[in-house]
Write a structure and sequence with these properties.
Elements (H helix, E strand, L loop, with lengths): L8 E4 L5 H10 L7 E4 L21 E8 L10 H13 L3 E4 L3 E4 L2 E11 L4 E8 L10 H4 L12 H17 L2 H10 L7 E4 L2 E8 L5 E4 L5 E4 L5 E2 L5
Parallel strand pairs: 1-2
Antiparallel strand pairs: 2-3, 3-7, 4-5, 5-6, 6-7, 8-9, 8-12, 9-10, 10-11
Helix pairs in contact: 2-4, 2-5
Length: about 240
């Protein structure tokens, strides 16, 4: 996509949502790579409209404006690319719960939200990572579900630099390499899952990033979107 990621950058002490601010910038012509970060969000959100909760100053809260030439097709694997890049920055123990929740152990460490107007050649990539969260600071219902790197708050900026470097590399990679890297981090493969339309056994992803599921009768289907839960653990 060309220009460096992370420049220009706007850092906010507090905002409602970094994705909302980045969308505003994108709509007014902000260039590829524009980065919005915040120390705190009052209305951060993830997929399915969920609220993203993080104590002020404890997490990486970021959104990137990404653009591509009109001659190029929309980067359909962007959520998967981002998930792999986050895992690169976190380390070998990170796993991906389709399509783009990052797990450490059994807890959710990071979330990814892609929004925008692909037909106009741009998207906003939002990422939240629990870098320095203390689980006891989280609302009680989240403590058993969340994971954290448990680092000091001074490591958030170095982690951001590592993540931007990883995103830069992964965005330039061929689709096959991204998919192979994603499959190596797959937290669901071979596990029993359930979704709104049924249940089955997760069987990896196809070339478009859809989740493959083997049904009880032996048939296979591909899920393009939707919420998936592990049968044994409601992540």
């Amino acid at each position: 996509m060309g220009a460096a990621l992370g420049l220009p950058r706007v850092h906010l002490r507090r905002t409602d949502s970094t994705n909302d601010r980045a969308r505003e910038f994108a709509l007014t012509g902000a260039p590829h790579g524009t980065l919005v970060t915040a120390a705190a969000q009052s209305a951060g959100r993830g997929r399915q409209g969920r609220h993203w909760s993080a104590p002020p100053g404890s997490s990486l809260l970021m959104s990137l404006v990404l653009r591509w030439p009109a001659s190029d097709r929309s980067p359909t694997l962007l959520p998967l690319v981002a998930a792999v890049a986050v895992c690169d920055a976190v380390g070998p123990d990170a796993r991906i719960k389709w399509p783009n929740d990052i797990l450490l152990g059994d807890g959710k460490l990071a979330g990814i939200l892609v929004e925008g107007r692909p037909q106009q050649g741009w998207a906003v990539l939002g990422i939240g990572v629990n870098v320095a969260v203390r689980t006891e600071e989280l609302p009680a219902p989240l403590r058993a579900l969340a994971a954290t790197l448990g680092q000091g708050r001074e490591t958030i900026e170095p982690f951001l630099a590592e993540l931007l470097a990883a995103l830069t590399r992964r965005l330039e990679e061929p689709r096959d390499r991204v998919l192979d890297a994603w499959r190596e981090r797959d937290a669901l493969r071979g596990r029993e899952i359930a979704w709104a339309g049924g249940r089955g056994s997760a069987d990896g992803v196809d070339a478009e990033g859809h989740l493959l599921v083997e049904l009880p009768d032996g048939a296979q289907i591909a899920l393009a979107a939707g919420e998936v839960h592990l049968e044994s653990y409601n992540l």
